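Assemble and predict.
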Amino acid sequence: MSGDTLVLDLVLAGLLVFLAWRLLTLSDLFKATVLFIVFGVLLSLAWVRLNAPDVALAEAAIGAGVTGALVLDALRRLDARGPADEAQPLRLNLPRLVGALLVMGLGAFLLWSVLSLPPGWRGLSSETAAAMPRSGVVNPVTASLLNFRGYDTLLEIAVLMLAVLGVWTLNAEPMPPAEPAGPILDVLVKALLPPMVVVAGYLLWAGGHAPGGAFQGAAVLAAGGILLHLARPFNVANRGVVRLVIGFGFAVFLLVGLTLATLGGRFLELPERHAGILILMIETAAMISIALTFVVLFVGNARDNAGRDTS
Amino acid sequence: MGPSEWLSMVMVSVGVFFFIAGSVGLIRLPDVLTRLHALTKADNVGLGFIVLGLSLQAGSLLELMKLLLLWPLALLASSCACYLVAEATLLQSRRGPGARRHVR
Amino acid sequence: MTEFMFLMAAAVLGSVALGLWRVVRGPTRADAMMAAQLVGSGGVAVLLLLSHAMGRAHLVDVALVVVLLAAMVSVAFVRRLGPVRGDDGTE
């Protein structure tokens, strides 16, 4: 840390610690939510200072933006239900005990695997750098996510699909109708939707050589969907088309992997010559699916005739 | 340093001044509507000056275009958001205090 | 010039911290709703200044994303936690 950046880094670090402390200790959930969103934006600045612009982008788009909207929505639902379940503390029964033990076991395993790394191990950055020419892209983060560690990303997309299933299973009450959108909100939606779509596409394309990629693009696209939903509530029912689009990204990714395996390669081992175009293909499909996933997570219920503007 | 660097630094300083003014307004002004006005106007003028100052130093046409796209978007978004918050405040006060239950 | 940009970024961040005082203090919900705009414009300004100071043109993309997402979150605040029909004591 040199002299020029010292002031900035100190202010940033101090603010982050202060916000983390306040948002965990505040008893007012509304203010805690506000501080959570502020924390997300400042955390993204911290990632920038740590030279991780890809993480900064993801934190700003998903951590602060989409998650922020989800938490706000949850708060509204809690608010409508009145004072929540503080009166009935969770009892420890057998399923909960088993669940807790499983989670603690996983935590212990992760801790053990980090501690068992050889001392002085410098990570895989030199291996990544050496393999970059064969990855089909220039951005090492995208190369790792879509090529070297394709498995992880494939399973991440699967986890998001499971999250949608969970939301649909719970089938939350539809949101009570909001005030009709005034002319100003209409103007805002009309003016912001096109740039959101353009920026999402740009981030997807930029992912090959700069910070960006499917998840970040999807978050911006989903922000457009959420904005539209906030102005004019619509419902994303659990229907064939919706399921198809949500599964699309996972299906394309899996199909590419299986095709490569049957053609003589190994599962998800992208051939050097076509790696670039395959990555773009997988990411485009993934972006569309992830964006719809985020919107469904926000809208929340699976019923066909809920909300006012279902048509 | 050439004149364009000096001009950039002046513009950015003016921008930062507006940001600080906005925050002082946010702290000192007496009610929600005046505070909204301080925040939205001052911060966006500040952002505008910073964008202008930095666009003098832009390395490429693409970067310049992104910078010049960013400010109008920020202006539009925050003036609309300001209107919405103000409208909500007015609706709330018309319905009287306690009309809305507080979240814990 | 680089040092100057870092200092200016620190100053903007400081002004955001000042503004947060009002957000935490209240007294009304609208004060807290302004937080999204405060970190929206302030965060964008810091990102742009850092983009220049750190010599990373791509940080402008992050700033663009923050502008768009902050707008969405501001609307979410008002539409989800602002006054709603049926709240006029008839709950």
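Residues 98-104 of chain B have pLDDT under 50 and may be disordered.
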